[in-house]
Amino acid sequence: MTAGILVAGSLLAPQGLAGTTASLDADLKEDRHPSRTKMVQAAPTEFTVSDVVGQAGQTIALGIRPQSVGSPEDLFAITGLPPEVKLSSGSPQDDIWLVRRKELTSLAILAPEAFSRRFQIAVTRVRTNEKPPLTLTASVTISAKPAGSGVFTSAGQPRPRAAYERSAGENALFDKARERFKTGDIAGARAIFEVLALKGDPDAAIAIGETYDPIVLGQLYVKGLQPDEAKAVAWYRKADELGDQRARTRLNALNQN
Asked: Is this structure's pTM higher than 0.85?
């Protein structure tokens, strides 16, 4: 990729430097004459970025918010990522990640558990036929995952399974939630599972954890649904407290993912 120079928020290609330099010199000369007034109109904001703080080993959402300006296929270049860090979408090109506008909202950072660092990224909307490049920056702080966090071993006495028996109506609800989950109605499934889990149903606690589990959701191929590892861990821990022996297996799988 050809290097460029960032001037007033825009990445300028080398072939345009001569004309740009001349233009800047003219502007500077004009500023020395108070009698001459320039009208500067700010370009509309095409996207916004915000600083990010997260924990390694988890999915960390990037704070990039595209506005209603521009095509969903507009290409964005993200630079400044350390080699150990990956993005959930897009394609890496040497030290640059290329992402389309439609992928920005769900874009997330993936870092190994031992990773701990603060760095700055630059997000550039690549030049189009109608508009010059536009670059914004953000700070990213990732802390290492504490040793042993979320890890459950098979050693020690397992918790006794909670003595919870579903009624016939609750069995029907549980089966309905399972069917919704399989057909992609994740929100509907969660609503039912959560009611049962809060009553002390271990199976429901496991089931709602699965609706957030990145491993499980990755096998379903549900488009547009974002996993939440922290919530999955919380519900699996709830299931473990209720004595479901599957919970520790799920937690260890997440820890190794």
From this structure: no
